[in-house]
Amino acid sequence: MRFASTWGFSAAFRRDGLPKARRTFPEFGPYLDLVMESGYNAFFLNPLVIFRGGSVEAHIDCSLRSYTLPLEPPYPGKVSVYYAQVPEELEGGELLLSDARGQELGRIKPVTNMLVQFDGELMHRVTPFESSGEAVLERSRISLVCEHYRLEPSLLLRVPDFHLETSRQFGEFFDKALETEGIGNEA
After folding, report:
1. Is 16 helix (H, G, I), strand (E, B) or coil?
2. Buried b / exposed e across 147-157, counting CB within 10 Å, b at 16+?
3. Which of left, alpha, beta for 142 (phi over 0: left; psi -120 to 50: alpha)?
4. Residue 82, domain CATH
5. For 174, phi and psi rounded to 5 degrees?
6. Which of 11, 87, 88, 96 has its CA nearest to residue 49?
7. Nearest to 46 by CA among 58, 34, 29, 28
8. Cα torsion for 167, 170, 172, 178, to the nearest 10°?
9. Is residue 121 assigned to a domain?
């Protein structure tokens, strides 16, 4: 599996949709303030939870492809990864960066509150990790990933101003997260 033992959702947006992204996710504001640079006009934001034993196979980000088909968008100019939560007893879970030939260029051991930014054309993966205890949310590796694109006007028109998506119904995703946290669903 490409994203084994992971949860997540995504938001694709253009620069003019940034205010809507901020209203939808006000808690992401400090992160967005830190990573947003002029010159980029489209973004793909992906909060990602990797549970114990989980991993992400080697890939190059190009998440806006579904909006621009049959035309191919360029790779992102940069990728920003913020580690919101990393278990202290983490074994593995490293971010490995490599070139197109598979030559390893860097190995990053994440720690909570670390920000890593890298060239969007780099191949990368996350090694499987183990931590003590059960595979629950509070012992998981949680990161916030943003792909930053410079799209030509014809491609930019194909990207929505703001679009939220998950592979499950968002309500189901949210209910499961609340259940895992032991909060319940009293609302």
Report:
1. helix
2. bbbbbeeebbe
3. beta
4. 2.60.120.10
5. -65, -45
6. 87
7. 28
8. 120
9. yes
Q: Residue 141: inside a domain, yes or no?
A: yes
Gap between the Cα atoms of 96 and 107, Å rounded: 5
Task: For residue 166, give the amino acid letter.
Answer: T
Residuewise pLDDT in 10s, the chain (187 residues): 444 445 678 999 999 999 999 999 999 999 999 999 999 999 999 988 888 777 888 888 888 988 888 887 789 999 999 999 998 887 888 999 999 888 999 999 999 999 999 999 999 999 887 766 655 556 788 899 999 999 999 999 999 999 998 764 444 444 444 444 433 333 3
Residue with tokens 């990790």: 129
Half-sphere exposure in the Cβ direction for 59 (13 Å, CA): 12
Cβ–Cβ under 8 Å, residues 121 and 148: no
For residues 40 and 150, the answer to whether their CB atoms sit within 8 Å is yes
- Residues 6 and 21: their CA atoms lie apart, in Å, by 23
Q: What is the pTM of this model?
A: 0.83
- The domain total for the chain is 1
Task: Tell whether 125 is covered by a domain.
Answer: yes
Classified as helix, coil or strand, 174 is: helix
Residues 6 or more apart in contact with residue 154 via CB below 8 angstroms? 71
In a domain, 173, yes or no: yes
Domain that holds residue 65: 3-181
Cβ atoms of 131 and 91 closer than 8 Å: yes
